Amino acid sequence: MTERKVRTRYAPSPTGHLHIGGARTALFCYLLARKERGNFIIRIEDTDQERNIENAEQGLLDSLKWLGLEWDESVDIGGPYAPYRSMERLETYQTYLHQLLQDGKAYYCYCSKEELDKEREAQQGRGEMPRYSGRCRDLDETEVRRFEEEGRQPTVRFRVPANQTIVVDDLVRGKVTFDSNGIGDFVIARKDGRPMYNFAVTVDDALMEISHIVRAEEHLSNTPLQVLLYEALGFPTPRFAHASLILNPNRQKMSKRDETIIQFVDQYEKLGYLPEALVNYFALLGWAPPEPRAEDEIFSLDELVELFSLERLSKAPAIFDPEKLNWMNNHYIKESDLSRIVDLCVPYLERAGLIPTERTPEQQEWVQRLVGLYQEQLKYGAQIVELADLFFRDHLNYGEEAKAVLAEDHVLDVLCEFRNQLQALESFDPNSLQRAFKQTQKASGQKGKKLFMPVRAALTGEVHGPDLKESLTLIGREKVEQRLQHVIDNYRQLVSK
Ligand code: GLU
Ligand code: ZN
What we know:
about 500 residues; mainly alpha; 3-stranded antiparallel β-sheet; two-stranded parallel ribbon; elongated; binds glutamic acid; binds zinc ion
């Protein structure tokens, strides 16, 4: 067999936002195509119109683009196999539908929904696996005429051959066999002629010369149906690779309403995650890098392309761990230029009304330094609002830890001395604050933690935080003096339990 050019596709239905599972599928398809110098295609499967959602297609493409997964052919840029939207391919499906009907490999089914429901209930009542009985398999002309006269509109069903073992040779799961007797004749076209998923996907993948179908495990059960269709239509069967399920942190299958994790890519974007962190994290959901990098965790998209292979996809389910994702996102935030992280954070500060949207150069510099203080610990952009809250408050909330620090014997002394030193300062910046601390140390005899912790607690309300002198500089002289005086004036109340 001559090697086919590698062509992969991600084929979402426009029924919602880009899900993390879909993003991972798209990523694997992208990586395989790039690795093998093939093509990556995005096809929109919109024939299930009842489920389509307006603007979903654009949203999906936007999210894929944001992740950096560039495609070679799709609805927006066209390509040699256009059109790439199923609803624009109806004539093509009709051609193959007629071929199957003519060959007797498909037939019209006139059963009504009510009849089919009844049939199913009866089967379930007998403890059988519900499947189409084949009632319309061999209708004679009179029966057909009667149904037509009743005004019944037929669906088209595929005639599943009896007593066949269907082998799906999956690149992840190995050979998976299915008994054709367990598969009822399935509908391939609706009453109005629109194709059903299994039929459309087979025709499209075949005509678009997709070489590798990479998708999630939940589609494994569809695969024997598609294999039957490939055979019936005389198309070469592509390779299949079904990536493992993604479970939530409680190791359960995710539902759309699952609240243990954030499930949609655009939600991450809105929260200020970095696309390269998501890509890196998604890649490790059900795939592992080869030696010698098997234990590493940080990979750029280019490195992933270099290292990717379907052999390293895992059969075992992947567990989505939001903590790990946050760790990874924090890693990329730390690695980024400060200016990028400032741009990431600014919209949240603006929206919270904490900084003006029109800023003077001084204000802008202040914002940069503020974000700079938190770059090391920031997990995602939106978090800046809670982290930096203390810079914007008129009144601090003193937590239990801060109160405990303030309650120590020497503290009032230190704070009074520090206040006196501040008042003597000509300028207010990290260097002059350094001198004030030195003087306070001399006068109070306290140093190290005993010196800095009370000041931090009094002026930030917290016992941990970023660089203290830079923090005080950014809080500003006026607020610092007010806060200090407030603690001194209300010391007894503040520290009493
Ligand atoms: N439109 C299908 C879906 O959204 C595509 C499945 C496939 O990749 O074959 O799940
Ligand atoms: Zn029927």
